[in-house]
Structures are given as structure tokens and as C-alpha cells.
Design goal:
Elements (H helix, E strand, L loop, with lengths): L7 E4 L3 H12 L4 E4 L8 H4 L12 H6 L1
Parallel strand pairs: 1-2
The structure holds flavin-adenine dinucleotide.
Length: about 60
Amino acid sequence: MTSIDLDALVVGAGVSGLTTAICLAEAGLRVQIWAAESPERTTSYAAGAMWGPYLVEPVGRVRVW
Ligand SMILES: Cc1cc2nc3c(=O)[nH]c(=O)nc-3n(C[C@H](O)[C@H](O)[C@H](O)COP(=O)(O)OP(=O)(O)OC[C@H]3O[C@@H](n4cnc5c(N)ncnc54)[C@H](O)[C@@H]3O)c2cc1C
């Protein structure tokens, strides 16, 4: 794919870059990812990647959100 064929170039292949690229591709854009390191060598690959409410208020509403 040449740069002329691209709609977007995403820099980075961690969770931020890959998620952005997938969202853009699902929206119909022609996307290419460029990264200094492959996904297996990112922080994202090694990190826990868990999410949950922590020290946020009001607890009852946060759980619904
Ligand atoms: C031990 C640990 C545990 C964690 N646990 C959690 C958790 O439980 N829940 C949570 O939400 N978060 C957690 N985090 C944080 C989370 O992992 C990071 O915030 C997240 O992975 C960052 O993703 P990212 O895509 O922004 O960056 P990265 O995963 O670091 O990816 C960066 C990408 O950009 C590329 N890049 C960087 N600079 C350049 C450049 N100049 N040119 C080209 N490419 C470049 C890299 O090669 C790589 O591909 C944890 C972090 C650590 C270290």
C-alpha cells in the first residue's frame, strides 16, 4: 500500500495504536500502522490491561457507567 492509498497512518502498535487503527478501519478508512517496535515488544503486551472503578465517586453511579 503506498501513502497515496492511505487515509490514515497510525503511529504505535500498543493498545492505543491498535485500537485506533481497528476503529478507523471499521469506519471504512484505509489504515496503516507504523511502529518502532512490534506489538510483542510493547508495554501493552506485558501489562495487565485490567480496568475497573477504583477510588471514584459516587460508587453507585460509577458501577452503572
Ligand atoms: C506492569 C504494568 C502493569 C499495567 N497494568 C495496567 C492495568 O492493569 N490496567 C491499565 O489500564 N493499564 C495498565 N498499565 C498501563 C498500560 O499498560 C499502558 O498505559 C498502555 O499499555 C499504554 O499503551 P500505549 O499503546 O499507549 O503504549 P505502548 O504499549 O507502550 O505502545 C507504544 C507503541 O508506540 C511505538 N512508538 C513509541 N515511540 C515511537 C516513535 N517515536 N516512533 C514510532 N513508534 C513509536 C512503540 O514501538 C509501540 O509500538 C500497566 C503498565 C505496566 C508497565
